[in-house]
Amino acid sequence: MPLDSLGGLAAVAGVLGLCVGSFLNVVIHRLPKMMEQEWHTQCAELRGEPASTAASLTLARPRSRCPSCGHQISALENIPIVSYLLLRGKCSNCATPISVRYPTVEALTALLSAFAAWHFGPTLQTVGALLLIWALIALTLIDFDAQLLPDSITLPLLWFGLAFNLFGIYVDLPSAVIGAMVGYLSLWSVFWLFKLATGKEGMGYGDFKLLAALGAWLGWQMLPVVILLSSVVGAAVGIGLIISSRHGRNTPIPFGPYLAIAGLIALFWGARLTRAYLGLMA
């Protein structure tokens, strides 16, 4: 495909990524709160208590507001990155600083979306890669904030991976199915071995489901690369945080972000890394 056509496709994907990144900020902020609200409702029902009369939080309602003064964010104040720059990173009503993470998520989503379009071209691989990238960004930051990997993202992600590979978009269907099974069972086994040895839970069930989803997308052949990369990065970051005294030895560190980062690396360069590794082993 001509470079100018690839550039145009990447630009369109980048703009789409900006818009999706703005929505992902809402998902990252609200989904854990929605889950907590649902848990409270379920607990009240089990206790036989009346349901809460408070308005349910959704991804669409209520409209986004400044957490400091309650100012409702207008459409012009919600343009990805542009609004942040025009507002100089502050609320237009009370001048409270706006977290730089919002434009960072938008920019990261745009860049990764554009790169996926450039890398895979006008194919169904690009469509699938965009869905995978967007889901992994949301999961990474939710896990970082709340130590949660919501089933409402991980389970559809797994089924979408199998659905794409019904047509062999990334790998053949048997490899995808085996990847989902092995991905789940490998971390499930580590979880129980660690628990039996120490009496503690080393990771959450969401990690099993996330690795199963990555196996469904990328096939079982990529799981060693994903596990190795995520373990190395996670260990390095964990040791660094302990040395810098930002985390105690008993403070949990979410593993989902490292799985997600490793999954993205495997999506783009997994086959090359696997060949290089096998070459070194030979």
Quick rundown:
The chain is mostly helical. It has helices at 3-46, 82-86, 101-120, 124-146, 151-165, 173-198, 205-218, 223-243, 256-281.
What would you say this structure looks like, in words?
With 282 residues, the chain is an all-alpha fold. 69% of the residues lie in helices and 0% in strands. It contains 9 helices and no strands. The chain is globular, with a radius of gyration of 21 Å.
Q: Order of SSEs, N→C?
A: HHHHHHHHH
Proportion of strand residues? under 5%
Computed structural class: mainly alpha
- Approximately how much helix is present in the residues? 55-70%
For the CA atoms, what is the radius of gyration?
21 Å
Mean of residue pLDDT values: 89
Give the termini separation: 36 Å
Query: Oligomeric status of the shown chains?
Result: single chain
Global morphology: globular
In this structure, how is the largest beta sheet organized? none
Strand elements, count = 0
